[in-house]
């Protein structure tokens, strides 16, 4: 049950039913085991990855979404990337203490982690607006070596309208390149492309089936590459982060807060910008949930009342036990949301599985700020999947949020929202039940042998 090498592959959006289209992964499952993977709310990338790497939940490790509102700075920042934001002890730390070498390919919140080898996108933004492809790497010079042999990591294929299997293909090539030269014992590979076809076309679409087949081809290339390198006794752990659901409804919490007089709007040259510092309340949206930040705690009940009972909103939570108001009860230890953390919004909105949330605050598209028409993760207070539908000729992102067909993030209350967990050795599974994301760390630690 202990292995010299363990390969952890994270494939967001993968479901057990998708193995029907993935013969190479099915072969691993046949000799090992398949379980449902139950993600902890919020079921989005950064929190779930932190759950898997710490064995803790968001209220303990502090990763409460894919982005944060930094109250002291008055700014929202998405995809922060810094490992120090994780407030709990991580797998990287315990493996390093055991002398187990480790490599990480493109996971979130990885910069400055204790892993020996790290590569993750870090494009250079020049003052004139140009963006230059680059990656953060550890040790210094690693990305330069990869660049010489493999070319740039194809950031344009990692996210946005051109997202496709090329980004996954580069990660497989780079991981094999490093394993051949350095032999890290633990390798974490992130396969990003499966996620985006489901958002764009729906989780049961022909395009998603094709993406599953492509992911299986890349897994097969990796398995074959490991054999050719001479590593034939590695353990494989392939895990989803969440499953997508079909969505047919989109809500706009910042518009609702604006109509209630809570959002402060600044007009510049006929377009409207949200003023976060002066707003009484605003929402940082993240797929199927949102953190609503309320300046004055006496307004929490009023803000909650805007959304309670609204079609598409399954729950409205106030995780921080405010002073005054009707929602003072602390979050119980068995609470399924696990969001009682100082970084959380004073109000948290939780969607029904068929609904997602868009960041828009304007009512007239002619008044949308210029960045709304672009691919821009820095100015938008929330995730914007509509960027995938950008017109490549005009370089314009449409402002029709109904184009999005799949989403995730809501609590995984049914098997339709479960991901997949596949291991090459059934003895690594903790039991015969579905696997929680917080159990993944223990599986990995169990699977790695003592330092040689």
Quick summary of this structure?
The protein is α/β, with parallel strands linked by helices and 452 residues long. The protein is 25% helix and 21% strand. The longest helix is centred in the middle third of the chain and has 24 residues, at 206-229.
Keywords:
alpha/beta, 2 domains, 9-stranded mixed beta sheet, 4-stranded antiparallel beta sheet, 11 helices, 23 strands
Describe how the helices and strands are arranged.
Blueprint: E1 6-10, H1 23-31, E2 33-38, H2 45-54, H3 58-61, E3 67-70, E4 75-78, H4 91-97, E5 102-105, E6 117-121, E7 124-125, E8 131-132, E9 135-138, H5 142-150, H6 165-182, E10 186-190, H7 193-201, H8 206-229, E11 235-239, E12 245-246, E13 249-251, H9 253-259, E14 265-268, E15 271-274, E16 281-286, E17 289-294, H10 300-307, E18 313-317, E19 347-351, E20 355-357, E21 406-407, E22 419-423, E23 435-436, H11 440-447
Parallel strand pairs: 1-10, 1-11, 2-23, 5-6, 5-10, 13-20
Antiparallel strand pairs: 2-22, 3-4, 6-9, 7-8, 11-22, 12-21, 14-15, 16-17, 17-19, 18-19
Helix pairs in contact: 6-8, 7-8
């Amino acid at each position: 049950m202990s292995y010299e090498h363990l390969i952890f592959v994270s494939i967001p959006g993968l479901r057990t039913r998708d193995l029907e289209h993935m013969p190479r992964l099915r072969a691993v499952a046949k000799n090992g085991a398949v379980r449902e993977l139950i993600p902890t709310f919020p079921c989005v990338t950064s929190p779930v990855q932190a759950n898997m790497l710490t064995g803790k939940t968001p209220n303990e490790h502090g990763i409460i979404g894919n982005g944060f509102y930094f109250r002291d700075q008055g700014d929202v920042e998405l995809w922060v990337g810094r490992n120090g934001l994780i407030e709990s002890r991580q797998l990287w730390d315990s493996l390093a203490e055991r002398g187990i070498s480790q490599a990480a390919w493109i996971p979130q919140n990885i910069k400055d982690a204790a892993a020996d080898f790290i590569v993750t996108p870090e494009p250079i933004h020049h003052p004139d607006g140009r963006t230059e492809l680059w990656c953060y790497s550890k040790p210094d010079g690693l990305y330069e070596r990869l660049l010489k042999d493999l070319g740039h990591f194809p950031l344009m294929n990692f996210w946005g309208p051109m997202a496709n299997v090329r980004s996954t293909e580069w990660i497989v090539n780079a991981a094999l390149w490093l394993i051949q030269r350095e032999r890290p014992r633990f390798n974490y590979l992130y396969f990003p492309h499966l996620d985006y076809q489901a958002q764009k076309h729906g989780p049961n679409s022909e395009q998603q089936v094709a993406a599953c087949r492509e992911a299986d081809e890349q897994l097969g290339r990796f398995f074959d590459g490991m054999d050719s390198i001479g590593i034939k006794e590695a353990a494989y752990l392939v895990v989803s982060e969440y499953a997508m659901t079909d969505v047919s409804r989109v809500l706009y919490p910042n518009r609702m807060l604006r109509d209630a007089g809570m959002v402060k709007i600044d007009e510049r040259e006929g377009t409207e910008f949200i003023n976060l510092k002066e707003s009484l309340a605003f929402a940082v949206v993240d797929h199927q949930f949102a953190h609503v930040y309320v300046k004055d705690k006496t307004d929490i009940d009023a803000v909650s009342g805007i959304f309670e009972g609204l079609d598409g909103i399954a729950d409205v939570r106030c995780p921080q036990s405010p002073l005054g108001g009707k929602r003072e009860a602390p979050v119980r230890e068995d609470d399924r949301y696990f969001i009682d953390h100082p970084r959380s919004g004073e109000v948290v909105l939780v969607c029904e599985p068929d609904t997602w949330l868009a960041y828009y605050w304007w009512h007239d598209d002619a008044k949308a700020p210029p960045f709304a028409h672009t691919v821009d993760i820095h100015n938008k207070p929330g995730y914007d999947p509509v960027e995938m539908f950008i017109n490549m000729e005009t370089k314009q992102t449409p402002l029709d949020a109904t184009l999005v067909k799949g989403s995730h993030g809501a609590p995984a209350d049914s098997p339709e929202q479960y991901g997949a967990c596949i291991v090459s050795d059934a003895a690594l599974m903790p039991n015969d039940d579905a696997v929680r994301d917080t159990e993944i760390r223990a599986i990995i630690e169990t699977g790695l042998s003592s330092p040689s």
